Amino acid sequence: MSKPGVALQAFAVVFALSGCSGGPQYPAPPAPPAEKAAPAQPVFDPSTATARVHGNVMFEGKPPEIPPMTIGGDRLCQMNALNIRNNKAIVTSDGRLRNTIIYVRSGHEGRSYIPPATTVVLDQQGCIYTPHVFTVMKGQKFTVRNSDETFHNVHAWDGSRSEFNLGQGSKGVEDIQTFAHTALPFRIGCDFHKWMAAYAGVFDHPFHTTSGETGSYELRLPPGKYEIVAWHEKYGEQSSMTEVHENGAAELNFKFTASTGK
């Protein structure tokens, strides 16, 4: 074969190869650098908290009157009507506001927290939820118990979603529940006994409590600066900043007035 023929044949081979490969070949682009994983936050053990914030939730003004109640045809609830009505009193004899949720809104960041192994119990006694307010961590187990010889259902609602809705048809029935979302509050009610209501504060940290029946509270915290919030179902919320030191204590009182009620 002549030299021009050899050259033409070589050109045809190169052209065919380039056509099969879809065009000129270029080196693959370098892989993007791998993203660095965020450093794990230290897990905090609440039992090591050395500081405390404590105080009273005071009420100023005339306590609200308890309106008449319609109990309905449930004989057990009718027998307990007086206790049901008394349970709705929200101010103690010395002017403290009962059933207020107190929690840390800020200052707890930078740590991770594991739900405690302790179980909170929400009981139904005499057609009343006991306690009226409680706090838990998201994922923490709590027990819902029916101590009444009547049917109750327990419906948790945060204003946009139903967290659970279960029926308890006889005395002694217990169900173990957890909250999958944080919220303040989850209202828990019985669709058959409309006056029954409890309120749950669900948090992603362990720094929360209630003023319970006495109107007083205490939080155990690591040293630091915190925004503390007091929330009440009728009187809304208040917040205040405080700082606590190692093995120290800070008194932080809240005051709600009759004029702020719903």
Descriptive overview:
The chain has 262 residues and is mainly β. It has a single domain, classed as Immunoglobulin-like (Sandwich). It is built from three helices and 17 strands. It has helices at residues 3-20, 75-79, 81-87, and strands spanning 51-60, 101-106, 120-125, 128-130, 133-137, 142-146, 152-157, 162-168, 174-177, 183-189, 197-203, 208-210, 216-221, 224-232, 236-244, 249-251, 254-257. The longest helix has 18 residues, at 3-20.
Task: Produce a short descriptive summary.
The chain is 11% helix and 38% strand. It is mostly beta strands and 262 residues long.
Tally of separate helices: 3
CATH topology: Immunoglobulin-like
Q: Tally of extended strands? A: 17
Largest sheet geometry: 5 strands, mixed
The helix/strand class is mainly beta
Mean pLDDT score, rounded?
87
CATH H level, superfamily name: Cupredoxins -  blue copper proteins
Percentage of residues in DSSP E strands: 35-45%
Distance between the termini: 104 Å
Number of domains: 1
Which blocks of ≥5 consecutive residues have pLDDT under 50?
10-23
Radius of gyration: 31 Å
Layout of secondary structure:
Blueprint: H1 3-20, E1 51-60, H2 75-79, H3 81-87, E2 101-106, E3 120-125, E4 128-130, E5 133-137, E6 142-146, E7 152-157, E8 162-168, E9 174-177, E10 183-189, E11 197-203, E12 208-210, E13 216-221, E14 224-232, E15 236-244, E16 249-251, E17 254-257
Parallel strand pairs: 1-16, 1-17, 3-6, 5-11
Antiparallel strand pairs: 1-13, 2-12, 2-14, 3-4, 6-9, 7-8, 7-10, 10-11, 14-15
